[in-house]
Amino acid sequence: MNKPIFQLVDELPTSGLTVSMLNALDFIAPGEWQNTVGFVNTIKTVTGESDEDLIQQIGERAIYLYNDRSQGYQRAMWLYQTVDTTDKALGAAALANKVGEQIPLFGFLSAVTPKPDKAQTIDLCLKLVVELVAFCQINGIPGDSIGDFAAALGEYSGESFIRMAALVCVDGLIPLGPDFINKVLSRLNQTSPQELQQNSTFQTIQDSIPGDSPGSKLNFIGESFDSVKGWMGGLVAQNNLTPQKVVGNLQSFMEFSDDKLDYLAAFLDVATNYYEHTGTQTLARRLIERAVAEI
Predict the structure, then answer these.
(1) pTM (predicted TM-score)
(2) With contact defined as beta carbons under 8 Å apart, do 246 and 135 qualify?
(3) Residue 294 phi/psi, 5° resolution?
(4) Domain, as residue range, for 285
C-alpha cells in the first residue's frame, strides 16, 4: 500500500461514472448512501464533531491504526482495489468476446476469451468473497467466518449497503438476468478448480481466500454465495428489481438500448470502480469509529 488512508479518502471523486451509477441505484434505499469524500470531512460526518483538536486526534489515531500491519485494514483496502482492477480486464474480455461473435475477422477472440456469462459468474462470486474477507479483516475475525458475515449483512447500511446493492444489480441482474441467483449456483457447480485458476481475479487474490487448494477455495466461494442468496433474493423481491428497472434508473445518466445489456454490463465493469470507491469509504468509517472509541 503506497498511499496513506487520508490521501485515499481525499482523492475520492465527487462526480464521474462510478458516482453517477451509485446515485442512480439510490432508488433501492433512498438517501441510504451519501458520497462523503475528504478525510477531515469524513471524520466530521461520522462523529458529528467540530472541535478541531479532537478531529486532529481522531485522524491521527485512524492513520495509526491503518498503518499497523498487524491489523487487517491495509489488506482489506488492497482487496477492494484489486477486485476492481482485475474487473476491468474481465470487462474487456467480455467485449472482445462479443466482437468475436459478430465480426468474422476477429473470430479467434471467441476461443481465447472467457464466455461472458461464465466470467461474470466468477466475477460476481469473487467480489462477494472479497466483501466477506474484507469484512473479517476490518473486524478482526477469522477470514472464513461465513456465518458472521451473513448475519452482519442484514445490518449493512450506507456505503456498505450500496456496494452490495450494486453487486446485485450491476454484476447480477444486468448481465445474468432476473434468475441470476440460480444461474450462479448452477454455473458454480459446473466450474472446475482448473477453470477457476484461469481467472485473472482469482490468480491475484487466491492467497486471501480460505482453503488449501483451488478445489477447497472453490468450495468456500460456493458456500459464501449460498450463505447470502437469501439476502440477495430478499433485496430483489422487496424492491421488485428487474434488469429493466435497474436499467431504467441508470438511463438517468447514460443512453443505451435495452437489447444491449451484455454490452452495458461489460462497459460498467471497465468504466466504474464502485468496489474500491465505497470500500474506501467503509474502511475510513470503521477506522474513525474505532479511533473515537479508543480516544
Answers:
(1) 0.91
(2) no
(3) -90, -15
(4) 5-294
| pLDDT tens track for 30-75 | 999 999 999 999 999 999 999 999 999 999 999 999 999 999 999 9
Residues 6+ apart with CB under 8 A from 63: 4, 5, 6
91 alpha-carbon distance from chain centroid:
14
DSSP secondary structure string for all residues of 214-255 = HHHHHHHHHHHHHHHHHHHHHHHHHTT--HHHHHHHHTTT--
Q: Where are the alpha helices (DSSP H) in 34-171?
A: 39-47, 52-67, 73-102, 109-112, 116-139, 146-153, 158-168
Give the residue among 142, 147, 148, 220 at the shortest CA–CA distance from 188: 220
Average pLDDT over residues 269-278: 91
**Total domains, the chain:** 1
Query: Tell me: the pLDDT tens digits for 219-242?
Result: 999 999 999 999 999 999 999 999
208 contacts 93 by C-beta, under 8 angstroms: no
Q: What pLDDT sits at residue 280?
A: 98
Instruction: Kindly state the greatest CA–CA separation across the chain.
Output: 66
DSSP E strand stretches across 130-234: none
